[in-house]
Structure formats: structure tokens, C-alpha cells
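Continuing the series of single-chain predictions for the mutant panel. This is the parent chain; the variants come on the following pages.
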Amino acid sequence: MPRSGPPRCRYRTVWISDTHLGAVGAQADELAFFLKNISCDELFLVGDIIDMWRLKQRWWWPAAHNTVVRRIMKMAGRGTRVVFIPGNHDDGARQFAGHEFGGIEIALNATHTTADGRHLLVCHGDQYDLVVQHHQLLSKAGAIAYDMLLVVNRWWNRWRAFRGQPYYSLSADIKQSVKKVCQFVSNFEQELVAEARRGGFHGVVCGHIHKSACEADVGGAGIAYYNCGDWVESCTALVEHDDGRIEVIDGLAFNAKVRAASAADAALHEADDEWTPPAMPFPLPEVPTRPAPPRLEGVA
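Parent structure:
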């Protein structure tokens, strides 16, 4: 069946991470719509795709989460190379590294070569988070607190929407205002940049901290740092164009643009279907009515 609406936006490579399917805060509807409207040669799932921590506490798997999985498998079936790199929330999948399921490769980390010849290390990044590595109970307690913050954030934005105000991430603002969090993000970046330098890479692509980034040169070290962000709050993806250029895409803005184009396309086709008879350049002559023949007597 031919695709209706605007064509898919094509990228050479797409990286997404921290979708947290199975968690209440996952914006699966938006992610499914985003995946439906893109195409790429390679798709990297950079960890915390399925939130096994939450699923162990409480089973939550609505239809939209299934839709995301189907979209990914459909992309793999159409020829996209899909690589899944488990994170700390879906670390149960790490035991299957080196295997392939439904056309999806599973790896602990990966190497990507850009169109302009740069070699990038791709990993989730939790290995460089000292809290996750050495204080797992504290890490899980922080995850619970983060969930509660997301609930507050959701109700806060419903109130803002009721008043006609745009979406505003209260949780992201709180995180940015905490000095220790900012220091943690800086240390996290420096650890990953150092790892990329040790491995002889030109840069690193990661997730984990729910903060998208696209830095061509961190600290003058000549190493690029890229972070996919997340699909819980910011809804961002990292994409590579055919010339090797990499940028962060705002998924919500992308989806809004596609929906607007689809609505305009539908309105255009609807207008094409409507037809108004054109005005004639001259009046049509009136055709006289022929009188009925006289009735003959005795004829039935």
C-alpha cells in the first residue's frame, strides 16, 4: 500500500536512548510516530530502551509500547541495520550480547564510522557513572524519586495546558538548578571523552543522563561528545546526515511539523475532490417543449 501523507525524512544514522518502555513516564506515542516518519541506514538503540527495573516492580505495558517495538522490527525488516546496546535499566539483555533477535543485533558497545570518516564509540554510559557502579541501592532510590518528579511534572503541564501555556519541563529545570547535578554531568562527559581518547576514537555517542548534547570538541581535546537525550522528558534523537554532519533533533517539534504537513496534505486532497461546475461563457438556448400528439378516438 502506498504511503499517504508527507514522505519519510531520511537520515544516514539515528541514535535514540532512554525510551524507558514499561515505565509510566515513557512517551511511547510520540516515539512511535517519530519512528514511523523517518528512515535510516542504521539505527542505534543506546540503552534503557526497556525499563526492566520498573517492570519488576509493576507491570505496565500499554499498546503504544508494543507499537514502538513493532516499528523498530519493521525498520529492521526493511533493511535498516538495528543495533541494541543495553543500559543499566535493561541490563538483563546484556547476557545476549553477540546474538541477533528479529534482525536486531545486541552488543555491549559499538563502533560507528561517519560519512566523513570519523570513528565514534557508541555506549550507554552507565559504566562511567560511579553511583550506578558502586551504589546501586542509591541509584534505584534516585530512580524512584525521579518517577515521582515526573508525575508532578505531568500534572503541572496539564494545568499549564488548561491555561493555554506551552509545555515546560519542571523536572529538567530542577535538575539544572542543582549544582551537584551539573557537576555530575560535567564529570560524566569528561570520563567518556577520556575513554574515547584511550580507544583512539574521534568521539563518543551515549545516553544515560537524559541530557542531549552535540559538542564537536570537548575541552580542546579534539574529541566530540554526543548524547541522545531521552524519550521521557525532552524526546530527542541524534541523527547523522549523508555528509557526516551530526545534530540533535527535537522529536516533539519534528512530530508537530509532520502532523501539520499531513493535515495540509489532507486538506489539499479534500479540496481537489470538491468540484464546482464552471460558469458558461454564454447562455444555453432554451429547447422548446414538443407538444404531445393528439389522442385518436377509439384507440386504446
